[in-house]
Design a protein that fits this description.
The protein is α+β, with helices and mostly antiparallel strands. The chain folds into five domains: 87 residues, Alpha-Beta Complex (DNA Primase, Chain A); 134 residues, Alpha-Beta Complex (DNA primase DNAg catalytic core, N-terminal domain), CATH 3.90.980.10; 126 residues, Dna Topoisomerase Vi A Subunit, Chain: A, domain 2, CATH 3.40.1360.10; 59 residues, no CATH class; 143 residues, Orthogonal Bundle (DNAb Helicase, Chain A), CATH 1.10.860. The protein is built from 25 helices and 16 strands. The strands form four sheets. It has a five-stranded antiparallel β-sheet with strand order 1-2-3-4-5. The protein has a five-stranded mixed β-sheet with strand order 13-12-14-15-16, with helices on both faces. The protein has a four-stranded antiparallel β-sheet with strand order 6-9-10-11, with helices on both faces. Helix 3 crosses helix 4 and helix 19 packs parallel to helix 21. The longest helix has 28 residues. The two termini are 43 Å apart.
């Protein structure tokens, strides 16, 4: 990672309004700029850019951060890549990162492997277009791929001879050892060096930066295995890469379509669905789900419609859910896969299927229902019991109740009976959390106490950021220790220190976090609407109203702080002193009148 002072220099030399204006049309309103969010579809501008905070925040989708965060999300880049992009833009020379001897050796080996893969890709590419590649070329033409598509994806051919690639690469000066390490050849005592791929159409696998890291090969004829992939190497980790992501990352469609095979991905891109990707000859992994989460919140599963495809879809749904992604399942019937569907019904009909993709939980219930005879009372009861178990996996009452009502409508199940069954399952197995009955008064259930506590802390941080002069009026009552969430405490400490020293820019703090999720949380903290704890706008018609509103917020934060520290006493003198001090401050605050 680059030194903090260099990162800050790069940030300061890239005014966020100027950078974002290169991609989004902004209009000034008050002290901020507004435009249409580039990260989700909207007709009314909710995307704000603050020159004072040097931050952006979308009140529609919740995306936010500083100038690095914007480049990371817009360009689908890592934090390090975003720093490099903005350094080049501002003419800042980045230092070379010091490497250990071991790191240098590994970096050198990686570089050589990438060179070898690049040369192999060129070799396969030209082989496909030579007389010996005729079979492969005709096969791809038969799959309705255009020459432009074949070129864009770098498709190639490994010919019938089992040592041609080895000879070619050795002729380029690469050693047997490195060719084997690249996963392109094997060495046997009886046969010596021989190619891993032969008589196959070749699919170069590229990382997000378009570097070739491995290959997939489809055999010509009836040979086995039908598809053969490169083994894992120093540059190729199957569990953390996705085929086609180097193109799909730029699709800007706010979704990804996950397929099973290379041909499905290519056919879909050719048809205009440039958000399609596929796992690399292995089952979908949590690492790949985490990779997708960098680019989208919604993944459409477009797996084969056969039994194996259904099984794979069910497994992927669980992985997507664990990664915090919304999964939806595409109905491809009567066709087996996306490639076959598009060839027969066209892209327009495929888009309609995407629009009607099934909610992943409903898909799970649909598959579950196939295993029970709904005309047999005993089996029907067993089905209802399994549905209840699945409903118990939802920890949020509202979400569980919504799904319960939907499932009951679809399968003609009595909702009151299902609700009692869910409660019974909870009591018997401890699965999930108890189902609360809806309030009889018709009033909505209140948010959890924790939500209110964090909201008060966010409001106070935003208020202090926008009006730092108010800090002197509350300094004797409030400190960073009163912000009980770890991240909020870090933010408050930096904010208070900055105010006391005469200056603080929130964007500086954002740069200290490389993870987009943390940057987004900080952006939310600094862009909270200053309201009452009930969510209603504050009455600030007079200075007295403003003073009262500020005291209410500070009091809420302080009360929670005292409660938190009292519950978490460690028994040492410092811990007890902190609790006593907090109580005295709280009692004083209750009696005080805050003056601005």
């Amino acid at each position: 990672m680059y030194p903090e002072d260099i990162v800050e220099e790069v940030r300061q030399k890239n005014n966020i309004v100027d950078v974002i204006s290169e991609h989004v049309r902004l209009q000034k309103k008050g002290g901020s700029y507004f435009g249409l969010c580039p990260f989700h579809g909207e007709k009314t501008p909710s995307f704000s850019v603050s020159p004072n905070k040097q931050m952006f925040y979308c009140f529609g989708c919740g995306v936010g951060g500083n100038v690095f965060s914007f480049v990371m999300r817009y360009e689908n880049a890592t934090f390090k890549e975003a720093v490099k992009i903005l350094a080049d833009r501002a003419g800042v020379k980045l230092p070379e990162i010091e490497l250990t001897a071991e790191m240098k050796k590994k970096a050198s080996e990686k570089s050589i492997l990438l060179e070898i893969n690049k040369e192999a890709a060129k070799y396969f590419y030209y082989s496909l277009r030579s007389p010996q590649g005729k079979n492969g070329y005709e096969y791809l033409q038969g799959r309705k791929l255009t020459d432009d598509t074949m070129k864009a994806w770098g498709l190639g051919y490994a010919n019938m001879y089992s040592d041609d690639l080895c000879k070619y690469l050795k002729g380029k000066g690469y050693s047997d050892e490195m060719i084997v390490k690249a996963g392109l050849a094997s060495r046997r005592e009886d046969k010596g060096m021989h190619d891993k791929f032969w008589n196959r159409v070749m699919f170069p696998i590229q990382d997000m930066n378009h570097k070739v890291i491995g290959f997939g090969g489809r055999v010509m004829g009836d040979g086995e295995p039908k598809y053969l992939n490169s083994p894992e190497t120093l540059v190729f980790d199957k569990s953390r890469n996705l085929y086609g992501l180097n193109f799909a990352r730029s699709s800007r469609k706010n979704r990804m379509i996950l397929c099973e095979g290379y041909m499905d991905v290519i056919a879909m891109h050719q048809a205009g669905f440039t958000e399609a990707v596929a796992s690399l000859g292995t089952a979908f992994t949590i690492g790949q789900a985490s990779l997708l989460k960098r680019f989208t919140d919604t993944v459409i599963l477009s797996y084969d419609s056969d039994g194996a495809g259904t099984k794979a879809a069910l497994r992927a749904i669980g992985i997507l859910r664990d990664a915090g992604l919304t999964g939806r399942v595409l109905d491809l019937k009567p066709y087996k896969d996306p490639d076959e569907f598009i060839k027969n019904l066209g892209a327009e009909e495929f888009e309609k299927r995407i629009d009607n993709a099934k909610n992943s939980f409903y898909f799970e219930i649909e598959v579950l229902a196939r295993g029970y005879d709904q005309n047999d009372p005993q089996e029907k009861t067993a089905f209802h019991r399994e549905v209840a178990k699945k409903l118990c996996t939802f920890t949020e009452d509202v979400e569980r109740n919504n799904y319960l009502e939907g499932i009951c409508r679809e399968y003609m199940i009595d909702s009151a009976g299902m609700r009692k069954l869910v409660m019974s399952v909870v009591n018997q197995t401890g699965l999930g959390t108890p189902v609360r009955e809806k309030p009889r008064s018709g009033m909505a259930a209140s948010n959890s106490p924790e939500d209110g506590i964090l909201k008060a802390q966010r409001i106070l941080i935003t208020w202090l950021c926008e009006e730092p002069d108010i800090y002197k009026s509350i300094a004797e009552y409030i400190s960073a220790a009163d912000f009980t969430d770890e991240l909020y405490g870090q933010v408050a400490n930096e904010l208070i220190s900055g105010i006391e020293s005469g200056g603080f820019v929130p964007a500086t703090l954002v740069s200290r976090f490389e993870e987009e999720e943390d940057q987004q949380k900080i952006a939310q903290i600094f862009n909270t609407k200053i309201t009452g704890l009930d969510g209603q706008p504050l009455a600030m018609d007079s200075i007295t109203d403003k003073e009262k509103a500020l005291k209410d917020i500070v009091l809420k934060v302080k009360e929670n702080s005292y409660e938190y520290h009292s519950k978490n006493l460690t028994g040492d003198v410092a811990s007890i002193d902190e609790a006593i001090r907090g109580k005295k401050q709280l009692e004083k605050l209750k009696m005080a009148t805050i003056r601005l």
